[in-house]
Write a structure and sequence with these properties.
Helix content: 40-55%
Structural class: mainly alpha
Number of helices: 3
Distance between the termini: 14 Å
Shape: globular
Mean pLDDT: 87
Strand content: 5-15%
Order of helices and strands: EHHEH
Largest sheet: 2 strands, antiparallel
Length: 62
């Protein structure tokens, strides 16, 4: 995952110890939030920085 911009549902499910089906619901919700802000999204993936900000409350500088 190092150097990646997006995180997949499988990777998120493993990190959060939840099912992939529930993770797809979370990704859909986060992508809808990004769509509303005018960002381009990819089905089944979410930007790692946005994931970290929403789930951990921090942003990691690269």
């Amino acid at each position: 995952m190092e150097g990646a911009i997006y995180i997949t549902a499988a990777e998120m499910a493993e990190m959060l110890a939840i099912s992939k089906s529930y993770e797809y619901k979370l990704i859909k919700q986060k992508n809808e939030e990004l769509d509303a802000k005018g960002f381009i999204t990819i089905l089944g993936k979410v930007a790692i920085k946005y994931f970290e900000e929403k789930f951990y409350g921090v942003t990691v500088s690269v």
